[in-house]
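Board notes (copied after class):
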Amino acid sequence: MSIVNLAAYKFVSIASTADWREPLRARCDALGLRGTILLAPEGINLFLAGPAEATDAFLAYLRGDALFEGKFADLEVKVSHSDKQPFRRMLVKLKREIITMNSPAIRPEAGRAPAVDARTLKRWLDAGIDDAGREVVMLDTRNAFEVDVGTFQKAVDYRITKFSQFPQVVADHRADFEGKTIVSFCTGGIRCEKAAIHMENVGIDHVYQLEGGILKYFEEVGGEHYDGDCFVFDYRTALTPALEPAATTQCFACRAVVDVAAQQTAEYKAGEYCPSCYATNRESLANQGRPAGRSSHADASGTLTSQSPRAGATRPSGDAALA
């Protein structure tokens, strides 16, 4: 696998994101990198891919160039590999938040919630309790369509369709957390970091975030206590616990997630339709030989724009990645 895929974020104050936009884009273009960088007053979120020498050079630039005032000197990066470039283009976007929660009081730079590392979490899950003897509850902070691809065994999933719904579902289900140790988790760590802070802020005790998210867990301990794969926002669709591209794919027409079983049905034709859009476009398929699918796009924040296999749910596609 010749392509290195980088995913990283850091909550840190950025006074003028506009001043950094063009230098970052120019450096990525010069190195031949593709992907998405999000800049917001609260920090940076990036998902880039390219040859190893290019990704190494970019990280050296981001961590060491005087332009960034040392803010990213300790940036931690999650790495995976692929046979081909997973992104179509290079984007540097300016945002209000690097992951949208619509809760201005949440400022991770000012202080994180406690974190649990992958090896400690596995030990807790092996035992069913934490070191203090409390029941451990895994809380999935991702969108419903991501959860459907894979999640921790017995994880709590409130079927949210966008992360900004998280504070309300916590308020609605607060009693679920009493007397338990809660571990919030997501793909790469950014959403569960904000989620854990919010839960602490509203007075919920014994809350942790999974350090580095699902992908770091896969990297350090594999797939124990996890069922399925991990959805990612690029052409790979999902990664296995071995951090290799899964057999799961996306429908070309409606962008739905299509698992292996669905790919074996008569209602799936690669590049044309899947069981989800086949059912909703049956008449069009009969008349034209293919369903009238919709194009869609999402950015790295996980904005949702098109129909999912789950009734009433939505899912993104396009140049996005690991949140």
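Comment from the instructor: Residues 290-322 have pLDDT under 50 and may be disordered. The radius of gyration is 20 Å.
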